[in-house]
Amino acid sequence: MSIPLSYSLRARLLFFLLAAIAVGALVQGAIAYRSTLAQADDIFDSLLQRTALSLGAGDGLLSAGPSRGDGAVSPAADDLIIQIWSPDGVRVFNSRSRRPLPDQIVLGFSDARIEGSTYRVYSLATPFQVIQVAQDMAVRTRMARALALRTIAPIAAAAPLLMFVIWCVVSWSLRPVKRARAQVAARQPEDLSPVNEDGLPDEIRPLIAELNLLLARIQSAFALQKQFVGDAAHELRSPLAALRLQLQALQRAPDAEARKQAEQRLAAGIDRATRLVEQLLSMARHESGVAREPLVAVDLSEVLRQTLSETLPAANAKSISLEQSGAGHAWVRGDPEALRLLARNLLDNAVKYTPDGGRVHLRLEPSDLGCAMLVDDSGPGIAPAERERVFDRFYRAEGNTQHGSGLGLAIARSIAERHGARITLHDAPWGAGLRVRVDFPAHPRADVARAAPAGAN
Q1: What are the strands of the beta sheet with 80-85, ordered from one edge?
Q2: Closest among 109, 114, 119 to 42, alpha carbons compared
Q3: What gap in Å lies between CA 144 and CA 123, rounded to an integer?
Q4: Average pLDDT over the chain, rounded to whole?
Q5: In the list 123, 204, 294, 387, which could disulfide-bond 425, CB 3.0-4.6 Å?
Q6: Residue 375's pLDDT band (boundaries 50, 70, 90)?
Q7: Do 105 and 130 meet the contact criterion of CB atoms below 8 Å apart?
Q8: 32, 341, 331: which is closest to 158 by C-alpha?
Q9: Is the pLDDT of residue 181 over 60?
Q10: Cβ(139)–Cβ(47) under 8 Å?
Q11: Strand 434-441 relative to strand 422-427: parallel, antiparallel, unpaired?
């Protein structure tokens, strides 16, 4: 298993920028050096040519006879050698040089090897004389190199200065990032306030903005969790106190009949407390940010049939008629367990609030959104003014005499929202009673053909 290597953005920027400056300075210096050498060579050749032309001007300026430059011979005299020949091949002039040029004359530019040194020679023929001007290549090379070094000196001096400027600019530009990192590192675990975005570069600002959004979501989730825990503790206090009273009544029962009645009340209280705990756990699971099962193709008709069979005993105990009609199949994309919990909460509420001998009707039908699940009951219904509030946790409609926790519809809405569905309350079609309508988005048939029906064994 390979371990990803961490790196510093500042160090990486400085390394590549400084390396680019160094390489660029070297390349530019090398190009400037070679270019200066070539230009200097052209200049020296031009000087040789101009010297020869100047000596060749006039009519046999140095034709008086063989002569030699006067004065002591010095090494500086070897830098430039001048020889002049008469038309008949007699050398009439030789500069003060201990190194005579070869007698063989090549007109124009040529190189000559004299006593271990290389000379650049320019020969010019006129009607009256032949002029040779030569220069030691070592001397002109030294002069050209000195000129080239003076040319690249500014580049060599500017490169370190530019590196220093780049170092300062990168360090200064990354100071806001360092400041943001320090803000996050200094935070306490409970501090979920936004990170200051002032002065951040455009490349870092979106990251900090997303971090602030994440902190806001975490803060909201913590607030909801805190509220939920407080509400749950408050709601559990009453059933636990009731269980204690029922247990005391059972212990003080004077006869078998009173004991039997106390046992039944205690069992009913335990069932209500169990149901409340189950609903609290369901609410916590569906409102938390934990990983959930992926959504798959689910047949709502099959979900309703399974839920109907689970609710049938409670309906039979109250002589309530349970019916299911509508489409034979209604495919949606969802979590099968969550959809069964949604349907069971709606059916449990319908059976609980429907009086003995009433009816509960389930129906699946097409809707503008895709398909709709309808749960109709013949109970007391809910006033229009309270139909939105009953979706709040632990809220119970006024005048409600049934035991309950006020979590069923809250859980149903949470599950519906997760599936992109819309849940609304209406009057039952037969007048008295309540209709709960859940509109689900349509499921593409192409996906349905590849998916197995939910609940199939």
Answers
A1: 67-68, 91-94, 80-85, 130-136, 117-125, 108-114
A2: 109
A3: 23
A4: 76
A5: 387
A6: very high
A7: yes
A8: 32
A9: yes
A10: no
A11: antiparallel
365 and 301 Cβ atoms separated by less than 8 Å: no
Contact between 187 and 175 under an 8 Å Cβ cutoff? The reply is: no
The residues, any chain, with a CB within 8 Å of residue 404's CB and separated by 6 or more, are: 349, 352, 396
pTM of the model: 0.47
Determine the Cα–Cα distance for residues 415 and 338; give it in Å rounded to an integer. 7
How open is the CA angle 116-117-123, to the nearest 5 degrees?
125
Look at residue 456 in the predicted model and tell me its pLDDT.
35
Token digits for 113?
């090897």
